[in-house]
Sequence to fold (885 residues):
Amino acid sequence: MSQDIPKTYDPRKAELQWYSFWLENELFRGDPDSEGEAFSIVLPPPNVTGSLHMGHALNITLQDILVRWQRMKGRNAVWVPGTDHAGIATQNVVERQLAEEGLHRNDLGREKFEERVWQWKEVSEKKILTQVRRLGCSCDWSRTRFTMDEGLSRAVRQVFVELYREKLIYRGEYLVNWCPRCSTAISDLEVEHSPVRGNLWHLKYPVENSDEYIVVATTRPETMLGDTAVAVHPDDERYIGLQSKHVILPLMDRRLPVIADSFVDREFGTGIVKVTPGHDPNDFEAGRRHELPVIRVIGEDGKMTPQAGAYAGLDRSEARQRVVADLEKAGLVDRVEEHEHNVGSCQRCETIVEPLVSTQWFVRVKPLAEPAIQAVVKGKTRFVPENFARVYFEWMHNIHDWCVSRQLWWGHRIPAWFCDDCSEIIVALDEPDRCQACGSASLRQESDVLDTWFSSALWPFSTLGWPRETRELEVYYPTSTLVTGFDIIFFWVARMMMMGLRFMGEVPFRQVHINGLVRDENGQKMSKSRGNVIDPLELMDEFGADAIRFTLSAMAVPGTDIPFSVSRMAGYRAFCNKIWNAGRFLLLNLETGKPVTSEEIESYRQAGDLTLEDLWILSRLQSLIAEVDRNLESFRFHEASNELYHFFWHELCDWYIELAKPRIGSDDLEVRRLASRVGLYVLERALRLLHPFVPFVTEELWQRLPHEGISVMTSSYPKSRPEWVEPEKTEQMEALQELISSIRTARTENRISPRKQVPCRIHVSRKEGREFLQGQVHHLEELARVGPLEFTDSLPDGGVQIRGVSRLAEFALAIEDLIDVSAERKRLGRQIERIEAEVGNLVNRLSNLDFLEKAPESVVAGVRERHSESLRRLGRLKNQLDGLS
Fold:
């Protein structure tokens, strides 16, 4: 027997010991030449700007469960980790560091600034990947990639060049979202819109050669300085006569045509709108249709340009105030109304975004999107839950060209060069030395870098060696499963689908599991401003990594957000301790010997040596194996977790171990040996089932058991033996458990010490039921603490007794000599009086029509539930009092 098992489980010690052990023995490494069907997964690369948050913890926990499970099932599993360079976010972080030193990036120059960012990246990347390790993730760290490492950079250039040559990438002038703070264009997806209470100004524009004026409405008066037309709806009868005329732009005295275009909302304002092609996406498109000039009056720094005339140099907010003041002074403000409208802000720095016309690089995505749509339609890639496929389709069907250039220094520099002599654009994998058109050596590279998501879109195949033809690509692509959040279906999932199909000819993953958002226990989104952010590292220090993992998996209901509760985690820490204590008890009390095989257990079954509790726990174990396997196949982590919890805590610990204790402590060596073999078998298989969820405590215990192999994570995942599933034995055991629980409840309600034996009479109407219970007397006496135990044809009246019933039998406990009957009757009477008063008050509230009509539905439902519960408690107390009569 093992005697060196600590009394308490130390998560921190176990985590350090076993993670180092796994790494030293290279147990996470994937080998494309290994046997077994491939199972591959790529880690959604966390930004090098951040640290582990609860969303990361959920995402990587679910992935690790899948990888460990598949590895144990004999699959050739590999999990490729890595990080993302996070262009805008990372540059912002380093620029803030420089600002604290009184420096700007321009003071360093591009090359020195990039060196500074690389230095910071090394520190930050090490920090976040260390945090991922703390959670127990079994990534193949030998394959760690970074979106700007040499291999991925080559892949990015290859993709850009090929798409450009196919005319799927082009350079042109277009209206983009511009962040004045980040000094770069950003995509529509990087703009967060929120409602803002502002004003709607109704402005007078004089009609040329008349005393008349028209009224246009705008929320941004400063942009009127760039108007090049006003527009009406072609079917708006109010303005048919206006369409051939011109108006004069106030403050600028510019002559503007009145155009007719169906983009005008006749219900907005007066039905006449100003057209500013340089600062509004709808106006930009209208300007193209009507060949209007584009005037940019707001610059990239958020200040008014020289084209804004007298307002040049003013900040855009200051310019608004001056423009309005000047219009009011000229009598050209018709009226001002309060108005709520959406304002777009940069997702990273929260600066209000400015629509600006700019020359950028774009991907023509429609030709790439169609195959990606069809791949999901035909089931080549499956979304789980399925409803997220509709979200994917909605965006893909309405997709527009993707602006991929960013005006940054940190990122993949666009592989394009401009000839200063002939303006030729050269896009190439390697830097050219001469212009291919005129032969000039006067070339300069594009200063812009690519959108971060461009390189991330290649992640499933670039991390496996593409564009080289590698063995990893041959074996591990397409990847098996992607686990990610719903918020990046557009940013990342869709783009990986498009790029994977275009460059690999196959989808990048077979399944996409969308995990929910981790919220606080009140359902609020976690944010620093709310003060409700939970640091998973602090939780790991307090509760252990296994407790965090099990909490997250047990709450990961597909398609729903997780209201994360620290108190819930305390419960799952107790579960990890329960695993330890149960394992410790069995190891200290069982004869270990050699590993127990299924063939050995089968021989006991065939010989009829197993007891009811043995057959029951073995039957339940087989059902559990099948249920957990089925639920993991369908990404129902919460159900698999809850089944494991119920089996280990309630069935194995609360019942089987308690039922088996007399045999475990028996003086009969053969009885004790048989109990040991079955107990060890069930414990070892249960640890294997639990391992993907709680890897550290299971490894710690498994290593102390008789076992084969180097680690529980390389042992085989248990396979269900359907022939061991015995519904009849399960039904018998459940009936016995119900009777024991009923007796225990009756004892507890009557405050009878658990140490006292209570005389008990049992009546069973069916012969076979009576014979069954007579064979279980030792269990009844031990677990229900009853005795002497007498089987009777009927339960006699008389005496102070507690009576109860289960599906199998009726019972009566003789308690007259165990309690002070008079004192107990008085106590129960007082309780009954108090609850009867409570019931009366609740009935009055539920009879009040005013309350029923005016109170919130949830409040009324709560009162009804309290009334029902009070009646149930009242009934139980009266039954107890009757038993003391």
Notes: The chain has a mean pLDDT of 90. The chain has 28 helices and 29 strands. The longest helix spans residues 637-664. The first strand starts at residue 38 and ends at 42.
